[in-house]
Recover the amino acids of this structure.
């Protein structure tokens, strides 16, 4: 029963550790980025359930390695992405299939040296979690034309097309001139009278 918790942290060789570390890093990064609200639930509960299922169906042997968790993450990311009907998560599901679709063969007893029981357990736990966690975690963004108060007459893009869909060039709007208060223009002449010593006005 100790292996339920500790088996994912035990590997037989450096090659075994490396083969599990790379997909585990990639898939867990995708899980933590796209499924932030349930990431720890998926990881911790998935590890426990995968270990328990392996303990129930496993052969009398040493089932070690994190490959069960890798199959858990791959199955969850793929099926949850397909069920969500969101293009971001669906694209992620296709990337998972492209990168790790070949792992599907190892849920069957094709090699006696590989714990196919751990792979199968992680795979089915991932499918189970894909059904349980149904909420869409990525907000669907609505474009302007998808909103209820959208008015096509006020759309500046559509005004560039006529009724037949032909592009028309709109006249350029000239910048409005500022209203400058104009002051009256004139010449002011000032006359002055001076007296000379002879008391004669000049």
């Amino acid at each position: 029963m100790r292996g339920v918790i500790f088996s994912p942290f035990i590997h037989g060789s450096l090659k075994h550790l490396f083969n599990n570390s790379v997909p585990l890093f990639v898939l867990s990064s995708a899980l933590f980025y796209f499924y932030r609200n349930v990431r720890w639930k998926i990881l911790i509960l998935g590890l426990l359930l995968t270990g328990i299922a392996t303990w129930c169906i496993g052969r009398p042997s040493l089932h070690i390695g994190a490959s069960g968790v890798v199959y858990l993450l791959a199955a969850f990311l793929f099926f949850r992405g397909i069920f969500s009907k969101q293009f971001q998560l669906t694209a992620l599901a296709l990337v998972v299939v492209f990168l790790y679709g070949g792992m599907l063969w190892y849920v069957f007893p094709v090699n006696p040296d590989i714990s196919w029981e751990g792979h199968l357990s992680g795979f089915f736990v991932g499918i189970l979690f894909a059904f349980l966690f149904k909420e869409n975690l990525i907000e669907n963004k609505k474009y302007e034309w998808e909103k209820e108060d959208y008015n096509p007459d006020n759309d500046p893009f559509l005004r560039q097309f006529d009724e037949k869909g032909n592009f028309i060039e709109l006249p350029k709007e000239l910048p409005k001139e500022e209203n400058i208060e104009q002051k009256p223009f004139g010449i002011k002449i000032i006359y002055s009278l001076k007296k000379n010593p002879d008391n004669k006005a000049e």
Q: What stands out?
A: The chain has a mean pLDDT of 81. The CA atoms of residues 89 and 163 lie 38 Å apart. The domain at 3-132 is CATH 1.20.1540.10 (Rhomboid-like fold).
